[in-house]
Write a structure and sequence with these properties.
Structural class: mainly beta
Strand content: over 45%
Order of helices and strands: HEEEEEEEEEE
Oligomer: single chain
Number of domains: 1
Radius of gyration: 16 Å
Length: 182
Amino acid sequence: MADLLYSQRMRLMPVLFFAALLVGCPPGGDDDDDAGASVASVTFLIDGVDYASDVGGGGRRASTGFMSVSFQDDEANGSAGAIRGSIGVWSGYAGAGSYGPLGFEMRDFQGINVTVRNDDGSETGWVGNSDATDGSIEVTSDDGFAVEGTFSFTGELWDNSATKTAITGTFSANAPDQDDEN
């Protein structure tokens, strides 16, 4: 059973990450004067180590209750400590508030995934726990263009769901409503 859950998660993670990048990245244009997050970033505290990354994209669709922030630390160019992943509420998003518990059930997906590059070049990744019994995404500010907040959850290692780690962090990102662009 654990192998099946792991296999399902591993197939799902790249899809979720790339979907967040595709949907979350706003199209180019000359509207750079929009209000929003002055610094688009995420931070994580994992096993006593701080990680930070710029946000690659963010977006939402008010009509479907979707909000996503994707991140990838490109400045590190693959060096140790580089992180990538996403933070998302895939249904039921309604602005500032609390969303949780976190998990990866596609019907009501709310969750976080993060991958860290290790000193030896390997990667370690965590996702929200499979039984979706803890964790939350707290959106503290949503001005219609940018979102900010905090999160906390018990992450499971991708390759060993029995290994759990408390993870906390913050996010700040421009996440324009994609419905407004049609």
